[in-house]
Amino acid sequence: MNVMINEIQTQCISRRGWNQPIGVLGVRYADLFGPRFLRIRIWFTAAISLFGVGFVDANEEDVLELPVRFHLVRGVTQIVEGEKLENWVTKDQVEQVLLPEVNRIWMQAKIRFLCESVSEETISQSPERDQIVKQLTNIKRGEDSESSIRLCEKLVDPTKFDRYSMNLYFLPYVGRTFQGIADFGGNRVVVGEWSDKATGGREAPEKVLLTEPEPFMKGSLGRTLSHELGHNLRLKHPAKDATPMGRIMGGGKHGYLLTPEEIAIARESAQKHLKNWLMKKRELDRN
Fold first, then answer.
1. Spatial distance between the Cα atoms of 189 and 183, rounded to a whole number of angstroms
2. Cα(45)–Cα(215) distance, rounded to whole angstroms?
3. Which helix (DSSP H) or strand (DSSP E) does residue 66 occupy?
4. 30-40 pLDDT tens trace
5. CATH architecture observed for domain 64-286
6. For site-directed labelling of 77, which of 155, 227, 263, 282 has its Cα 20 to 30 A away?
7. Residue 2 phi/psi, 5° resolution?
8. Cβ contacts of residue 116 below 8 Å, gap of 6+?
9. pLDDT classification of 20: cutoffs 50, 70, 90
10. What is the per-residue pLDDT for 242?
């Protein structure tokens, strides 16, 4: 069912346009397969997780679906090694390139991320804005990485945060040799659209690839998002000598693999996210 729906969404966007009317009634594709329909799907998936409802397609019954809100932060300019860094990722790239890549990687765990929304958000115009941006730019590996998340929170509008979804924030740059930061076990991720990780900080940051054909070479935004979402789902970095190699969570060699143990941890965490989403949503509806 979900595969068919995703294919319909792709065809609607590519052939007719998401907001184009259908037929004489003037109903839009966005009305049929947009946020309202997404909420129904999330409710349905959460109910299955919480109550064990058993009337879904056999091919989809084990897939856990988690809502994601993408925050494209605008108005941030960072200067690193003489390079002027600004946001460049677009809404279409998020929906049509990055999210499919994340779901391709995570399907090995039968976890699918659904786009709750993609919003462009201008940073706060507070007096300390420039100082916060400077601090964020100068963070180095080995320091408290979570400080990137706290600094990001000071730059963005807190009312745009959705506590029922995973929240992915896109900034130009998140610190020396970093590509992304996650709130372990939480629902916040901050990623940089520019990075100097591939050169170990020896050269100026460059735009990160949206996706990268396997095997892993330099990395990509799609892989970084997948890695950081793994931290949200309580996955840690494996030891450098851990086997197997070539894992999405790192270790001695980076790659795209999730081990059976990591899949079990991630699915348990995903189920908790779904249950919390359903219970909190029901409480809000009652109020």
1. 6
2. 33
3. strand 64-74
4. 444 455 555 55
5. 3-Layer(aba) Sandwich (3.40)
6. 227
7. -70, -35
8. 35, 38, 42, 67, 68, 69, 162, 165
9. very low
10. 92
Helix (H, G, I), strand (E, B) or coil at 116: strand
The pLDDT confidence band at residue 59, using thresholds 50, 70 and 90, is: low
Tokens representing 46 are 């959460």
Tokens of residue 100, six digits: 């499919």
As given in the structure block, the two tokens for residue 124 are 């706060």
Q: How confident is the model at residue 45 (pLDDT cuts 50, 70, 90)?
A: low
DSSP string of 266-279, one letter each residue: HHHHHHHHHHHHHH
Handedness of CA 251, 206, 218, 73 (dihedral sign): positive
Task: Report domain extents, the chain.
Answer: 64-286
Segment 75-79 mean pLDDT? 91
Place of tokens 């998002």: 225
Average pLDDT, integer, range 95-110: 98
In degrees, rounded to 5, the angle at the alpha carbon of residue 186 between the alpha carbons of residues 48 and 221 is: 95
Q: Please give the pLDDT value at position 48.
A: 45
